[in-house]
Amino acid sequence: MNVVVVESPAKAKTINKYLGPGYKVLASFGHVRDLPAKDGSVLPDQDFEMLWEVDGASQKRIKDIADALKTSDGLILATDPDREGEAISWHVLDVLNKKRVINGKPVKRVVFNAITKKAVLDAMAEPRDIDVPLVDAYLARRALDYLVGFNLSPVLWRKLPGARSAGRVQSVALRLVCDRESEIERFISEEYWNLSAILKTPRGDEFEARLVSADGKRLQPRAIGNGEEAGKLKALLEGASYVVDTVEAKPVKRNPSPPFTTSTLQQAASSKLGFSASRTMQVAQKLYEGVDIGGETVGLITYMRTDGVQMAPEAIDAARHAIANQFGDRYLPEKARFYSTKAKNAQEAHEAIRPTDFDRVPDRIRKFLDDDQLKLYDLIWKRGIASQMASAEIERTTVEILADNAGKKAGLRAVGSVIRFDGFIAAYTDQKEDGEQSDDSEEGGRLPEINARENLAKQKINSTQHFTEPPPRYSEASLIKKMEELGIGRPSTYAATLATLRDRDYVTIDKRKLVPQAKGRLVTAFLESFFTKYVEYDFTADLEEKLDRISAGELNWKDVLRDFWRDFFAQIEDTKELRVTNVLDALNDALAPLVFPKREDGSDPRICQVCGTGNLSLKLGKYGAFVGCSNYPECNYTRQLSSEGGAEAEFNGLNEPKALGTDPVTGEELTLRSGRFGPYIQRGDGKDAKRASLPRGWKPEDIDYEKAMALISLPRDIGKHPETGKMISSGIGRYGPFLLHDGSYANLESVEDVFTVGLNRAVTVLAEKQSKAGGGARGGTPAALKDLGAHPDGGGSITVRDGKYGPYVNWGKVNATLPKGTDPQAITVEEALALIAAKAGKSGGTTKKAPAKAKAAAAGAKATKTTAKPKAAAKKPAAKTTAKKKSAE
């Protein structure tokens, strides 16, 4: 009996059926170990030794594999056919060797590009050893990403409060998005005019022709720049006679595109189906791993992480056979088509994405697939089958027309095209990917019969005004396409890279377009100013090329790391002398359109509107960046930094509070104001004035007296709890709407619930929350009310919880009770750190890990490394991040 290790349990079950009783197939569930998300996991001073840690869940899976090996004849590593898959096999083998359970048994590596019986059995017949250069490339990539993230992120925290972190590839992808936004801000629209004539043939058929020349000069696109010039040309055309100069019909062949790669699939799924990159990959993963088709689980597509564009010979034969059967011999080209990729640094180690069986027409298996699976499979099947079909045959007709008005001449052109044979278009039609602009193509539909030298009758002259438009923001699809063109990242990492940018709030998606947020633009501007080399497109692409050369066995992976670390570490050290004023000056210049938007009155946007003498500048606070006056504290004007210059930015720029009415109880005035952290309601004046920020989704322009009174009157008493007799109230905290009863909190679904929830519903919500919490008073761990993020010194997240004796702050084994009357929803990170430090018996607002040595000793039992045991921890401060099952750039 042989033990076979694959990545997912779904594949394990299917492959076990294919292999039979002589094999036991177990799943690793992705990576079995990773670099711990703490400082000291990669040690540059010790020749880049790497510590690896096996998490709790993976410990059990490794034990299952080890137990099975004790009675087996050998081990077969059958993880995915890419770099990550090779690395997972290496990790599994390394851990098992350290457990001393291999004991000389044969170990082989097999790869299959599809989960079908034939593909699996063929792979088992051709085993190989682990590809060491491929593993080295993985180790280099993982170390690079770790070193950048854990050394650059602390620089951001110190110099740019509010920034979360920076990654090697994510930072370059973010720069692309931010650079496009800067292009849009700098864009100056230009006026241009198009002229065309509606003409009639002697047979009575009408068609349209565009003006292309005048007075013997060729008119370039957008050459007519104003209405006066357009008017003169229109007058010429109005009084002209028209005659056909030439008619040319030219046959054109249009060839199909190759089958999908990872990036082209993501682009097509975005433009045709509206799928995000991550959604596309999730659905593709299910199709690859297998779907139950009439009682048998079958993989429907080949492996979906690839930049290869070629299909296997047997797949090409199957596609040609299916074309002949389903479309006819006319659609089958004489010879098979072969493709090569144009992507920079592409690795064509395995096939393009294609159906595993072209006879599985989408309509035949519709009933076995959910809606998303069917849409994506249909797309893959059609693109795959079309790639081997005959070219489309198109007849393109160009008609040149002369206009003559008393010796003043002009030239017009009409272009039409007719599909004489649809070819591959019968299966799949390409279209411009989402985010691309039209190129003002002259292609048109069918033209009527037009003959050379015949006269044409003028019906109408059209003169239309246009304005040039800025380049569009990137969509996920067009950003992936651009990253691939530049050689940034790899197909398997695109979806994860985009997800990271969204998760860190560096970008948002609006109408499928990527919009950089203020914090994302600040990070990019900072990196471009002080770490220019490391966000350059060419530098990142060159580094990817070096990783490819490592995988080909041409470079030593540690030599690449040494070269990178030497310069990068020096750059990190240089920033220690960097003053905040230097940072702000650089950001003010780099982000001038964002920080200092133009004013309608034409005044200097850098002069304070309130005092009239102070200079506005970026300021850095504990919650991020804002714009403030240099005359502070005499002038306390501040403005929130907005990612767009729309209504929010205009409102934030209001000089005076907006009066809304008077509180009937206190007699104090209610005003709508703008502050550093956005718009808010204030009742009264002075230090004792009550304030309430506008909840998420509430727009300043929609605030009236009633809404202001409701907001400023919070918390709202709902009624007494029928069991305890204590009041239940509702309010809005830093983390959203909530209910409060006897020191216990429960979240409400929406802001509107705060003002409308009744007593019965409130009691039910509180009871449901208590049930979900697992009964902290009975010894279980109370559910977290809030997660304040990772502790600066590591050791896990800081959370706010509700215990038997009231709310408290938790960090690791430290529990610090909140002072009486403190609102758990409003507790800040700084306040939590101070409470934790006080509880731990230390001074100051932060604390170091007291049990560091003990934890290091405990971790030693689990941790392993690539060479020898490390002698010292890394010197650089590190960020706490979340370890992932499968590393992403």
TrEMBL record:
Domain Toprim per the UniProt entry, residue ranges: 1-117
Q: Which is one Pfam family of this protein?
A: Toprim_C_rpt
Q: Which GO terms describe its molecular function?
A: DNA binding; DNA topoisomerase type I (single strand cut, ATP-independent) activity; zinc ion binding
Stored PROSITE patterns: TOPO_IA_1, TOPO_IA_2, TOPRIM
Q: Which residues form the Topo IA-type catalytic domain?
A: 131-572
One GO BP annotation is: DNA topological change
Q: Tell me which UniProt keywords the record has, alphabetically.
A: DNA-binding, Isomerase, Magnesium, Metal-binding, Topoisomerase, Zinc, Zinc-finger
* Highest taxon of the lineage: Bacteria
Segments carrying the region annotation (Disordered) are: 772-799, 840-889
Ranges annotated as biased composition (Basic residues): 872-889
Q: What does this protein do?
A: Releases the supercoiling and torsional tension of DNA, which is introduced during the DNA replication and transcription, by transiently cleaving and rejoining one strand of the DNA duplex. Introduces a single-strand break via transesterification at a target site in duplex DNA. The scissile phosphodiester is attacked by the catalytic tyrosine of the enzyme, resulting in the formation of a DNA-(5'-phosphotyrosyl)-enzyme intermediate and the expulsion of a 3'-OH DNA strand. The free DNA strand then undergoes passage around the unbroken strand, thus removing DNA supercoils.
Assembly and partners are described as: Monomer.
Q: In which family does this protein belong, per the annotation?
A: Belongs to the type IA topoisomerase family.
Name by which UniProt lists this protein? DNA topoisomerase 1
Organism of derivation: Rhizobium tropici
Q: Which gene encodes it?
A: topA
